[in-house]
Amino acid sequence: MCGIAGIMMRDGKAPDASSLDRFARALAHRGPDGEGKYLAGAVAMVQVRLAIIDLKTGDQPIYEPGGAALIANAEIYNYLELRDGLDGIDFSTNSDCEPPLHLYARDGIDFTDSLRGMYAIAIHDPGEGCLILARDPFGIKPLYYIETPEMFAFASEPQALIAAGLAEPVVTTERRTELMQLQFTCGRDTIYDGIRRVLPGETLIVRDGRIVERKRRAALPAGGPRSTNIDEGLRILDDVLEESVTYHQRSDVPYGLFLSGGIDSSVLLALMTRLNERPVTAMTAGFSGTGVADERAHARMLAKTVGADFHEVEFSSDDFWSMLPDIAAGMDDPAADYAVLPTWKLAQEAAKDLKVVLSGEGGDEIFGGYGRYRSALRPWWQGGRTIRSRGIFDGLGILRDKDIGWRDNVSAAEATASDAERSRLQVMQAIDMTDWLPNDLLTKLDRCLMAHGLEGRTPFLDVKVAEAVFCMPDALKIHKRRGKWILRRWLDRVLPAANAFERKRGFTVPVGEWILERGDTLGPLVAASPAIAEFCHAKQVPGLFTSHRKHAKMAAWVLLFYALWHRRHIEGRLPEGDVFNCLAAR
Question: Residue 362 has what pLDDT?
Answer without folding.
Answer: 97
